[in-house]
Amino acid sequence: MASIADYYAGKNVLITGATGFMGKVLVEKLLRSCPKVRTLYLLVRPKAGQSMQERVSDMMKCKVFDRVREDNPDFHQKIVPISSELTQPALAISPEDVERLTSCVNIIFHCAATIRFDEPLKHALQLNVIGTQQLLNLAQQMHHLQAFIHISTAYANCNRRHIDEIIYPPPVEPKKLIDSLEWMEDSIVRDITPRLIGERPNTYTYTKALAECVVQKESSKLNIGIIRPSIVGASWQEPFPGWIDNFNGPSGVFIAAGKGILRTMRANNDAVADLIPVDVVINLTLAAGWYTAVHRLTFPPAALVYNCTTGGINPFHWGEIEHHVMSSFKRNPLEQAFRRPNANITSNYLMNQYWILVSHKFPALIYDLYLRLSGQKPQMMRIFNRLHKAIGLLEYFSSQDWEWNSENMNMLMSHLSPEDRKTFNFDVRQLNWPEYIDNYCIGTKKYVLNEDMSDIPVARQHLRKLRNIRYTFNTLLLVFIWRVFIARSQMARNIWYFVVSLCFKFLSYFRASSTLTN
Ligand SMILES: CCCCCCCCCCCCCCCCCC(=O)SCCNC(=O)CCNC(=O)[C@H](O)C(C)(C)COP(=O)(O)OP(=O)(O)OC[C@H]1O[C@@H](n2cnc3c(N)ncnc32)[C@H](O)[C@@H]1OP(=O)(O)O
Ligand SMILES: NC(=O)C1=CN([C@@H]2O[C@H](COP(=O)(O)OP(=O)(O)OC[C@H]3O[C@@H](n4cnc5c(N)ncnc54)[C@H](OP(=O)(O)O)[C@@H]3O)[C@@H](O)[C@H]2O)C=CC1
């Protein structure tokens, strides 16, 4: 049987979401580990005043392509951008491009989605569900299509505690929902959204569940694989350890904690932190593409679902994450930290609110006062408000446990040759969590914040300065509070004299006993 790289040789691949976090790693891995792949067609939209060609050229300059660039400086010749807006009718692809794609594409990887947790339902539905349906319609016109791989999320069914590798009945028939929302005003949709999404925490997980259902409906006509990654984090090994380019999910939390801004967050210390490195997800995705195309053996045909998670295989917990993140940022501090990194997680709501007040709001107020007095614009309170909004949306995922069955991941691994298992490694049993988290934190510093590693001694010096400021501040505060008490209360004075006399007694006792022993 052909190896994975042999299978992709000479194939034309269509990718949506290639400019995103996972899309870039997918494009890079295909070019590097399947160098004989013929063409990668990337569906890209123009954005922020840039044409799609400009966006793709910029993307190819990205550091993540350094290794591919070394191996093959002309790798861009294999990339063909196609202008497409997934929320538009027929994906806004020109008739010439449709002709081209339908005549030659062999595999589709559908990564594009809105992953925002606060996306209005109509827009999330438009992109995640209707966009997927339109792509499936296009796929059906393709004469040589061998596999359609849809990237979903392990949290599509987060209303359940145990999640099997099956597609669960949708919360509502997608077509009915699309038809009814079409005529509704945005304000009405906003009002009924909580009722519609029910036990799910946001429109993202809700629309991803509906998208799976839309995909399943086409499984009698297409070879379909569905990948459900859990919380996708920085890369483990490839193209280099710790690569990450965004603030999504835990990355933003790690950075905020490393900068000393985030001090408290609601999370369960003992709950499994189901992080999965991005290169593991991409290796599994490429292997699933190969398997879906080569082994279409199920009858009746059904989409094969792969829960791509770590919790059941190599569990690690939020409490351990907290410990390793803090330790990593103390060894390799971020530049210009606001305070020394010292974040704690708690599952207690009241305790969290107390720490928010004491460790977030109070220092922010003092700092903003300082900025105001020195003629600058106050900004810390604004930053904290945004941070609270972001972590408020994430807490649902860090406060509870899920159990995913990942038999199909094991089954797929058993079908790989020893060579493919190395090249497309998704065996998370080998993942060393402390080392991974250390690289992850360094990755946020190098690739998200673009900080120089050679500046670490200066950053450490800055942390020492912050520690000294804290000691001085705490001492002054203590003295001040005590002075106020002593001045006002006879009882405080009595306690004070008692403690001081006790100290003297101890001192004189130790001095006497040390004189005797000498
Ligand atoms: C140390 C101990 C810690 C231990 C405990 C750690 C616990 C971590 C828990 C993580 C759980 C993650 C669960 C994810 C599960 C689902 C996975 C998926 O399927 S799907 C994948 C998961 N999907 C997601 O994760 C999407 C979640 N994100 C969102 O939905 C939105 O970004 C938003 C609503 C949070 C903010 O909206 P909005 O106010 O409109 O703001 P914009 O978006 O326009 O960004 C504004 C600025 O803020 C920046 N920034 C962004 N996020 C964060 C952050 N978290 N933080 C900080 N900063 C953040 C952003 O870069 C930007 O900077 P700039 O360009 O202005 O300089
Ligand atoms: N990141 C994570 O933790 C997880 C992600 N997933 C899934 O993985 C997939 C990829 O996620 P990730 O890479 O993190 O997401 P990103 O937000 O980084 O990337 C999303 C991609 O979708 C594209 N896109 C968005 N809207 C449109 C549109 N209207 N038309 C065309 N393209 C569009 C974006 O293009 P543009 O650059 O133009 O905005 C971008 O390329 C998603 O399906 C997500 O649900 C699943 C589990 C976890």
Q: Tags for this entry?
A:
518 residues; alpha/beta; Rossmann fold; 2 domains; seven-stranded parallel sheet; two-stranded parallel ribbon; 19 helices; elongated; binds stearoyl-coenzyme A; binds NADPH dihydro-nicotinamide-adenine-dinucleotide phosphate; lipid metabolism; lipid biosynthesis
Short note summarizing the structure:
With 518 residues, the chain is of the alpha/beta class. The protein has two domains: 4-247 and 268-315 and 402-426, Rossmann fold (3-Layer(aba) Sandwich); 456-517, no CATH class.
Structure description:
It is found in: Peroxisome membrane. Residues 15-284 form the Thioester reductase (TE) domain. The chain crosses the membrane at residues 471-489, 495-512. The chain is an alpha/beta fold and 518 residues long. The protein has two domains: 4-247 and 268-315 and 402-426, Rossmann fold; 456-517, no CATH class. 53% of the residues lie in helices and 10% in strands. It has 19 helices and 13 strands. It has a seven-stranded parallel β-sheet, with helices on both faces. The protein has a two-stranded parallel ribbon with strand order 6-13. Strands 8-10 form a two-stranded parallel sheet. Strand 4, helix 6 (121-140) and strand 5 (147-151) form a beta-alpha-beta unit. The longest helix is centred in the last third of the chain and has 33 residues, at 456-488. 40% of the residues are buried. Bound molecules: stearoyl-coenzyme A and NADPH dihydro-nicotinamide-adenine-dinucleotide phosphate (NDP). NADPH dihydro-nicotinamide-adenine-dinucleotide phosphate binds next to helix 2 and strand 8. NADPH dihydro-nicotinamide-adenine-dinucleotide phosphate binds at residues 17-23, 45, 47, 85-87, 111-115, 127, 151, 153, 208, 229, 231-232, 248-249.
